[in-house]
Specification:
The chain has 361 residues and is an alpha/beta fold. It contains ten helices and eight strands. Belongs to the peptidase M10A family. Matrix metalloproteinases (MMPs) subfamily.
């Protein structure tokens, strides 16, 4: 495993292309042109498929199948070259699962709300791995939580609670940009026993962070502006890649809601907090306000861990021994337990009353 990781880092160093990402330190520094480019993602072409359903044939459906294959909704064994423009049962099944994961009405059709969700910028990690997803298992199993893990539930081993991270030197990142990652790591450190420190040694670091464009050696090429924004590996591989073709905002302030729908600039800290969740062992969640929700709108900022994120990460590592206890799983599960029991008692009373009513009348 260690040798493979070393090999990966060396190959990244050899093929890394000069970064083209632009970093904006505040909203007023974003040029007006960026606002006009808000809909330049290749996925926008899916919008012309609106209303399509089983039995239809249309240009672009094969590309949509590739999209669903990429995020795990169509089995990876399916050959990309063999995808046709037929809206078949395989596609309908993929859309059904996708709609369930994103809390949309399950129609199996390409309705407006489904297409709006599909075209949003998102994390490059799949929602389903090997056809399996716990992303929205909460509804199915009547659980409140929706967080998920990678298959096999990998996590950093117990003896490694102090993790280091390093940046690919060729990116020449400024201290402002590096500081964004420090803030993102600290959000996870606050609720776990984990500590994160920056290292100058790329080969000795547990986590390696780099901005790349297009194909960059791991078989997961980036796709230019918007589309996929970043991806990260499960523990203990420690690979964190961001799309160098994005325009990144490094400011701590929230972008005005007024300009939010028309900007193509992505909040770096929001994406960093999400990808660090993967690096620590979390998969995607269907809770929209959770950090581990896979999509984010251009210009949006979401950096606070939600209850779902905290409960997920504490399943893997436990709480922060120096924390104030407000975010520990134990403290929350006690309250949840009382609520669950209260619900059960109320439901039983209600069923009992219904039976009495039916017997008597
Ligand atoms: Zn993700
Ligand atoms: Zn990559």
């Amino acid at each position: 495993m260690r040798f493979l990781r070393l090999l990966t880092i060396l190959s990244l160093l050899l093929i890394v292309k000069p970064i083209s990402a632009k970093f904006y330190t505040n909203i007023s520094s974003i040029p007006p042109l960026q606002f006009l480019n808000a809909t330049r993602s290749a996925w926008e072409t899916f919008e012309k498929l609106a209303g399509c359903h089983v039995g239809d044939k249309a240009d672009g459906i094969s590309k949509l199948k590739q999209y669903f294959r990429r995020f795990g909704y169509i089995a990876s064994a399916a050959a990309v070259d063999n995808f046709t423009d037929d809206f078949d049962d395989v596609l309908r099944s993929a859309i059904n699962t996708y709609q369930k994961n994103f809390n949309l009405k399950v129609t199996g059709k390409l309705d407006a709300s489904t297409l709006r969700q599909i075209t949003k910028p998102r994390c490059g990690n799949p929602d389903l791995i090997d056809g399996f997803s716990e992303m929205n298992a909460g509804k199915k199993f009547r659980r409140t939580e929706r967080y998920s893990f990678f298959p096999g539930k990998p996590r950093w081993p117990k003896q490694r609670r102090d993790l280091s991270y390093a940046f690919v030197p060729a990116n020449n990142l400024t201290d402002d940009v590096k500081q964004v990652f420090a803030r993102a790591f600290s959000r996870w450190a606050d609720v776990t026993p984990l500590n994160f420190t920056r290292s100058e040694s790329l080969l000795g670091a547990d986590i390696v962070i780099g901005f790349f464009v297009g194909e960059h050696g791991d078989g997961e090429p980036f796709d230019g502006a918007m589309g996929t924004l970043a991806h990260a590996s499960s523990p203990p591989t420690g690979m964190f890649h961001l799309d160098g073709d994005e325009d990144w905002l490094v400011s701590e302030t929230e972008i005005s809601r007024r300009i939010l729908p028309v900007t193509s600039v992505v909040d770096l800290e929001s994406v960093a907090v999400h990808e660090i969740g993967h690096l620590l062992g979390l998969g995607h969640s269907s809770v929209e306000n959770a950090i581990m929700y896979p999509a984010i709108s251009g210009g949006d900022r979401k950096v606070e861990l939600a209850k779902d994120d905290i409960e997920g990460i504490q399943q893997l590592y436990g709480g922060n021994p120096n924390g104030d206890g407000k975010t520990s799983v134990g403290a929350k599960s006690g309250v949840d337990c009382i609520r669950r029991w209260r619900g059960l008692v109320l439901n039983s009373l209600s069923s009992f009353a219904t039976c009495i009513f039916l017997i008597c009348f």
